[in-house]
Write a structure and sequence with these properties.
Oligomer: single chain
CATH architecture of the largest domain: 3-Layer(aba) Sandwich
CATH topology of the largest domain: D-Maltodextrin-Binding Protein, domain 2
Bound molecules: fe (iii) ion
Number of strands: 10
Largest sheet: 10 strands, mixed
Strand content: 15-25%
CATH superfamily of the largest domain: Periplasmic binding protein-like II
Helix content: 40-55%
Order of helices and strands: HEHEHEHEHEEHHHEHEEHHEHHH
Structural class: alpha/beta
Shape: globular
Radius of gyration: 23 Å
Distance between the termini: 82 Å
Length: about 325
C-alpha cells in the first residue's frame, strides 16, 4: 500500500516537472532560419533577449537553402521563424505553405500596408530602395527622370545593369508588370537591353564601379550598396537619383519575416516579430545595413538621410512574388540576360 502511494506521489512530481520544464523551454527560446547574415541580425536578437529573457538560436544560409530545408523538415522543423530578403522569397515560402498567418495589432500599426502580406503570412522589417545611380561627371540630375526613361535612345551605350537572374531585378520588373501591364513593361525592358554598355553584371557594386570608371553613365541598384561603396571609396564620382517622383514613386522591396507553420514556440516567435517592428529594433535593423526602417516613426541612419527623402511606390510588394514568373519570362523574351 505504502509502495503504491509512494509511486503515485513520484509520478505526480515527475509530471509536474515535465510540464513545468516543457513550459519553461517553450517560453525561453525562438529558433530562426535567417537569410540575413549574422552581423545584420544578431544585434536585434541580443536586444530582444535582454528585454524579454527569451533566447534566440539562429542558422544563416541563403534563402533557397533555407526554404528547401524548411520544406524537407516539415512538422519536425526546429525553426519558429524565417527571415529573408526580398518579398519574392517570402511570397514563395508562403506559397509552399511554410508560414502561419499572424493576427497582430502591433505589426499592423508598425508596418505600412504595402510592405506586408495581405494574407498576414509575412511582414516587412526593412525597406530596400532600388534606385538610379549615375556618374556625376557625365550626367546632370536634370537629365534623369524615371526607370522607363532609361529605355530612351538617349541612353544608348550608357546603361549598366545587374543580371536578370538576380531576384532584385525580377522583383523590379514584376512590380512594373503590376503597374504598367506586360506590353508596356516589355517595351521598357527591351529599351534597357538596347541601351546596355556591357553584358549584364554579377552584382550591384560591380555595376556602380563601371559607372564610376566611365564605362557606362547610369545604373539601377539597391541604395545600401551605394552606401557601402561610398563608405569605402568616398571620392567616387557617383550620386543617387530618386526616380519616378512625379509618378508612383521609387521601387521598394523588403527584407522581412514570418512565423513558420510548424513553430514550436509560436507565441515567443510572434513576440520576436513584434519586437523587430518596434522602435528599438527598427533603429538597429535599418542602420546595420544602411536600409530604411519599415516603421515610419523611425528615421534612417544619418548617412542614409543625407541621400535625401523620396516617395516610395505604394504598390503592395506581394506583386513581386505573384508576377515573378511572368517577369522572368518577359526578361528572357526581351533578351535581358
Ligand atoms: Fe543585397
Amino acid at each position: 500500500m505504502l509502495r503504491i502511494y509512494f509511486s503515485r506521489y513520484l509520478v505526480a512530481i515527475f509530471s509536474c516537472v515535465a510540464l513545468f520544464g516543457a513550459n519553461f523551454s517553450y517560453a525561453e527560446e525562438v529558433v530562426v532560419y535567417s537569410a540575413r547574415i549574422e552581423k545584420l541580425i544578431k544585434p536585434m536578437f541580443d536586444a530582444f533577449t535582454k528585454d524579454t529573457g527569451i533566447s534566440v538560436k539562429f542558422v544563416t544560409d541563403n534563402a533557397g537553402v533555407l526554404l528547401t530545408r524548411l520544406k524537407a523538415e516539415g512538422k519536425n522543423t526546429p525553426a519558429d521563424m524565417l527571415i529573408t530578403t526580398d518579398a519574392g522569397n517570402l511570397w514563395e515560402a508562403a506559397r509552399e505553405g511554410l508560414l502561419e498567418p499572424i493576427e497582430s495589432k502591433t505589426l499592423e500599426a508598425n508596418i505600412p500596408t504595402h510592405l506586408r502580406d495581405p494574407k498576414k503570412q509575412w511582414f516587412g522589417l526593412s525597406v530596400r530602395a532600388r534606385t538610379i545611380v549615375y556618374n556625376t561627371r557625365k550626367v546632370k540630375p536634370a537629365e534623369l527622370s524615371t526607370y522607363e526613361d532609361l529605355a530612351n535612345s538617349k541612353w544608348r551605350g550608357r546603361l549598366c545593369l545587374r543580371t536578370s537572374k538576380k531576384v532584385y531585378n525580377q522583383s523590379l520588373v514584376a512590380m512594373m508588370i503590376s503597374e504598367y501591364g506586360k506590353t508596356r513593361s516589355e517595351k521598357i525592358v527591351r529599351g534597357w537591353v538596347a541601351n546596355l554598355a556591357t553584358d549584364p553584371l554579377s552584382d550591384d557594386t560591380k555595376a556602380m564601379e563601371l559607372v564610376a570608371a566611365g564605362k557606362c553613365d547610369v545604373t539601377i541598384v539597391n541604395s545600401y550598396y551605394y552606401g557601402r561603396l561610398l563608405k569605402k571609396s568616398p571620392s567616387l564620382p557617383l550620386a543617387i537619383f530618386w526616380p519616378n517622383q512625379a509618378e508612383s514613386g521609387v521601387h521598394v522591396n523588403i527584407s522581412g519575416a514570418g512565423v513558420t507553420k510548424n513553430a514550436k514556440s509560436k507565441h515567443a516567435a510572434v513576440r520576436l516579430l513584434e519586437f523587430l517592428s518596434s522602435e528599438k529594433a527598427q533603429n538597429l535593423f535599418a542602420d546595420v545595413n544602411m536600409e530604411y526602417p519599415v516603421n515610419p516613426k523611425i528615421k534612417p541612419d544619418p548617412a542614409v538621410m543625407a541621400w535625401g527623402s523620396f516617395k516610395q511606390n505604394q504598390l503592395n510588394v506581394v506583386a513581386a512574388g505573384e508576377l515573378q514568373t511572368e517577369a522572368v519570362k518577359l526578361m528572357d523574351r526581351a533578351g535581358y540576360r
